[in-house]
Structures are given as C-alpha cells and as structure tokens.
## 1
Amino acid sequence: MNLKKLFKRWNKKLVQSDEQGHWRLRVWHRGPRKRQSPRLLVKCGDCDSKFEIYYDSEEGRGLEIAGVLASREEWKRLFGPLLGFTE
C-alpha cells in the first residue's frame, strides 16, 4: 500500500470543518530516512497541537503513537472499540 498517495489528499489547511461540525485533522506523511521509520504527523484542526505516528513498513510490526511503542494488534485492541470496530 502506498501511504504517501493515500495521505496526499488529507487536509493541510487550518480550521476546516468536517461533516459532523468538528475540525478536520491535518495529516502529513514522511517516508523513511536512513535509520528512522516512516511517520505520519497529525495536527489538530484549529491549533498547532500535534503528535507523530512512526510505523514499520513490514506487516505485523509495531507502531509508535505519541511516543508509546506497541504492536499493531495491541493498538487495534485499544482503538477498535472506541472507533466502533468489532471483531
């Protein structure tokens, strides 16, 4: 999957409203650099608050979200119910 193409269409403008009346997240993608994993930079829709998600391009590897490293399965277990996904 080419994440760069997927995230190229994401919002990068400040204060853009979504369908539910909330602010749209602003997302940037950066590919791998030497020994650093590829990452997503996610910013708040109406301010400069941000966090980074580093990921390994190989399937089954871990994700580091806001400085916390865990397996993808562990993140799914945490965020799945919050986002309405059921197994």
## 2
Amino acid sequence: MIKVEPPQGDDTRAWGPPFQMSNAARESSYFLGVNRSKRSVILNRKSSEGQEAARRLIAGSDVVAKNFRPGTFERLGFGWDALHAENPRLICASVPGFGQDGPYRDRAGHDVTTQGMGGLMSDNGEAGHGPLRVGVAVADVFSGSLITQAILAALYQRKRTGKGERLDMNLLESVIALGTNQVSRYLTTGEVPVAIGNGHRGTAPYGTLRCQDGFINVAAGNGFAVAQILPGAGPHRVGRRSPPDDQRGPGQPPGGPGRAAPGRTGPLDPRRDHAAPGKSGRAVRRSQQRGAVNNMAEVFADPHVQARKVAVTLPHASLGKATVTSPPWDIGGAKPEVRRAPPTLGQH
C-alpha cells in the first residue's frame, strides 16, 4: 500500500505528544499506530509534475482510496469518468465526511462532529451526564473498515466482470450504522435512547460490577447464563439482586418482561452493585471466566494477548525500532506477517 502525502506530511505526523524519539528523529505515536506496512511518497497534487506523478501511480494501481471533500479530486482532473476511461479495472474508493450529495455534501467531516451528529454521543456514558465521545476515533476506524469490505467485494466482482467500480462511504452514515440495536430500537418504538452506562436495554444482568480490587464485566445472554451468574450457587456468584419474574430455563432467550423490563432489574450500577462482596476480581474471574476491566498496561501484560503476539516490534528507518499492533485476524491458521514499520515522510 502506497500512502501519498503532501510535502508537509500527513497531519497526524504532528499529532502529539506522545512521540517516539531517537537521536535523529521523532515520530507521532498516533501516526505509527495506524500506518504499519505502508510506503510513503510525497506528491504536490497542485503542481503539474505532481499531477503527472499521480496519473502514473493511478494507472498502475488496483485501488485508489481518498478522503477529499467531494469535488476536490475531480477539479484536479481525476474524476471517476476520466479515471475509469484510462483504467477500466480501477476501483476508486472515497470516504468524505457526509457523502457525495445532500445538504452537508461540502462540509469537512471530523470524527467528533460525526459521532455527535450520528447519535453515538447522545447515548454514550453514564446516566445524567452530558454527551460523551467514544475515546477512540470510531467514525474514522469504522468507516475505514466498511470501505475495506466494499473494496474486497468490488475486487471479487472484478474477477467476474473485468471492470472496476466507484465506491463511496462517509463518516456520518458509518456512525449511524455503528448504532445497530440502538438505531433499530428507535426505528421500532420511536423511543430515543439515552445513556445508561455499561448496562444493556435488552437483557440483564449485563454490565460492570465492583469487586474488592477493581471491576469485572458480566453478560448474560440466556437463562442458563443467568443461573450461572446470579447468587445462590457458589462463593463467587455475582450480584446482590436477582430478577424476580424470570422463570425461564436454560437456553431460553434473554430480555423480555422478566429480566430486562424497566423498573425491575435495570442496568447494573458499579457504584451500588457488587460482585461477591469482599472477594477479589481475580477470584471471581477464575471461578466464572468473567471479563476483566483492564487498563492498557494490563491489556498488554495479559498472557493471552502476549501468546497471540498482538504487539510486534519492527526495524524503523529513523527511530531504530517501533512497536505496533499486528492485524487482528488469522489467515491459514496464523497471523499475517507485518513486513514493515510505519514509513518516514517520503521514505519511498
């Protein structure tokens, strides 16, 4: 993958601190985190030489991905019709903020603004508090994942038709798609979702509970799981409350009038609800395989994460070495090799 950057570099190269440092250089940790295995070339798209270089790159490419506002690439002479005429097999993917048409077409899109406009911030966080942004750039990341799915489908289609395709994804609709059950709940009932912390509107017990030494997460997806989690069957059973009206047995579906009816079980409140009071989270997790609530140091100290080789250290052109995450999938029973560290500006 070739990352085409302007002469001053991608904006995220300057996003810091923190930076990884060496005697010769510094690199933004943000940039390093999202640019593994790429090559970097510098291109001034406003110059005639830069435009000619871009044409040569595009002519030899399978896929071109861009995140300009609608019309920007076209004004440089790289509209879909022109590119498709020159390279009929080309797949051209675009990820603006708001799409190729509509009243907001020409607006710049940013993660935080589209999280807000897409409804995600309104039902995120604790009850009674203001809107809260998800701590990572989910609009950026999820739109990238969705456009990747579309690119893979277009590549598959091209094997049958021999022709490329124009693909468009945008940040706002990615956030709305990410809403999944919250969106469908509103479309079904007209009820506007509000923040309920770590609870779940469709099933209980589900959420975060306090232990002697921290927190754990519990999630009951069916009647059997409820029987395993709630009090009465061992020293580490979770919670103080039990749903009074739920008579279903193992294997029956969650939710419904018993376990999740408003005013009955409700969301778990870590300030009030406790998991086996006086017991350590480690003991409860061992006995029930409950989920830990890890900080980032604990994530990468976890023996499973280490066994899966989630963090990899690679030689880096200016830093000497850089540590990044590996791809989160296996192919043929193994993780794909990360072949190069994130590039320095114009390295290739």
## 3
Amino acid sequence: MPIQGNLKELSIADFLQLLYMNKKSGIVEIQGDGEHFKIFLRNGNIKFIEDLNRNLLISEIKKTGILNPQIEKILDSIEKEEKVLEIILKENLNKEILKKLIMKLALDRMFYILQLKEGNFTFTEIEEQKILETDLEFSTQDFILESSRKIDEWSEITKKIPDFSFVPSLSDEWLKRETETLSLDALEWKILSLIDGNRNISEIISLSKESALKVARKICDLIERGILKIKEVKKFEEEVKKKKAQEFFIKAREFAKNGQYLEAETFLLRALSLNPDFLMAHLALGDIYYIQKKYRLAAQEYYEVMKRDPDNPLSYYGLAFVRIKLGDILGAIQIIEKGLKNATGKMKEEMENMISILRKLVLMTDTKRSIF
C-alpha cells in the first residue's frame, strides 16, 4: 500500500533519509507549487529523478553529440524521460558522459525538490529488480548533502539579489575605467551579451540555458566586482515612465510657445498619466488652463503642486492669479503671503510687487465704498 504524506508535516529530505536507511526500493512521486517529480530508488539509493513538467533529458543528451541520427529520431517521439533513459542505456553510448549528465540533472532536480514547502508525496514500493534496469545509482545521502549545500549558497545569493525580476545593467563606474583589463570566463561573457537594459535576471537565466544557481552566482560575482549593477523592476519602470513624461513635457512646451494650447494640454496630460508627481507638468497645465480661462481647472493643478510640495512658491503665485480672476482679491493676497515665505530672487520681488498692487486695489475699493 502506498505511503502518502504532506510536505508541511514531513520534509522530503527527512522522508528520503528514512527510505535510504531502510534500503527501500520504489518510486517517490512529489507534487507541489506547480512542480511534479518522480524519484526512482533502489535499496534506498537514487537511480533517476524525472521531471514530469519538463523533458530535458533528450535535449541535454543531444548537446553531448553522442547520439546517432537513428536513435535521435526514436527519442524525439518519446514523452517520458524514464523510457528515454531505458533506451539510451541499452545503446552502445559513452557511459561516462551519460552518467555525468544524468547525475547533473538529478542533482539540479533534487535542489528544487528540497526547497518545496507545500505539496504532497507518495511512495510506492516496487521490487528492486523492476526499478530502471541500469547500473546507474547515486547515494541519496550524498545528493541530500550536496543539495543542502546549494540551498545554503542560494540563500546567500538571494540576500544579494532578493528578486529575480531585477534588471541588471553595466555599471557606469566600471565603464569609466578605461585602463582596466577585463578577465571573464565564457559564461560571464554570455551573461554580459544577454544584458540589454530590459531583460530581468530570470529572463537572462532562461536564455543562458544554464542552471539558475550557476548563473545567479556569476551575476553576484559580477556585481561584487563592480561590473554590473541591478535595479528593482518597479524603480526601473518608474525611471522609464519619468523619462517618457519628460519627453511629453518638452513637446507640450513647444506647442505652448506656438500658441497651440489644446495640443500642449494633451501632451501634459499624457506626461502626468505616466508621472503624477511631475510638478512642472502640473504647473504648466495650470498655466494652460488659466490662458484658456478654465480657472477652476487651473486652480486644481496649482493645488496638486501645493499638496506635493507645500514650499513651492510658483503654485501660490499661479493660484493668486486665479483668485483675482474669480474676484477674490483678499484671498489672492493671503495666498501670495503664504507663498512669499519660500520665494527667493526675482520670484520674491514679483510676489512682493503683486501684494503691493493688490493692497492698493483693496484700499481704492474701500475708499470708493466709503464715498457711496
């Protein structure tokens, strides 16, 4: 009767240790976090680890160049790695190359299996002679120790690269070191060739066709040597948006200079949709609305600037003009006085002159009222 368990209650490493100590033969099937593996055991030791989501065995064997065209054609029609393994081990192929390849695949898979925290496993006991009739066999104990070592290394890598959605790029500081000679191995050159300022680390790992651990380790080394730097994808996307918003702002300014205010308004709105905190765009849009006599819309834009930067005198200056147009002279004076606290230079002079004019206007209005 199959033995079933939950990874939350018993780790797969502990379960495999039990099977190893009791010299059990059979198949451990593991499913969790979208993964699906089969571990073939004979007398507690590993014969093969099959990844049911990815048939990498054929493609990896093809890379070695040890297959003849006839066998290649047969293997292409087979879906299960277990069956592929049975066929190739019966052929007169280089056993040493095959053993290294199968061990590498199994070790890589054990590394992922041991990190699964959620899911289920099932062990079905089978007679040892029926478990993959091959002379290949690897120590379960050694696999667990090696994978645990890799997991510890992976933990150190993720401290330096907490998210593989980060985008790597060449370091500006390193590019300036013209006299420094560059000594890189083949994989490091490959990583540099895949960096385009848009691909994230996960995409680079996938395109490199190497193990995630190996590529991530190399990227960490390149970062520590000052050759690469990484950006959080969110920050990277924000920088791209800000740059595009700046381009829209420049276009809007050109339209405004030519009196094309509707076009300028359109580009300013596009800039703000990309970067809502773009203060100069809010101020410019406020000015455009003011010119078009859309005073309440202009006031909204000046208030947006005040909300984000209460010390910005330009927003108070613009809003004061809106108040004047709406007939609120006293309100305009109060706003100007608030903005004057942080104004300097020419802006301060203009605001002081504006207060002086407005106060005279209020005085003249009061005098006329007294006459009547």
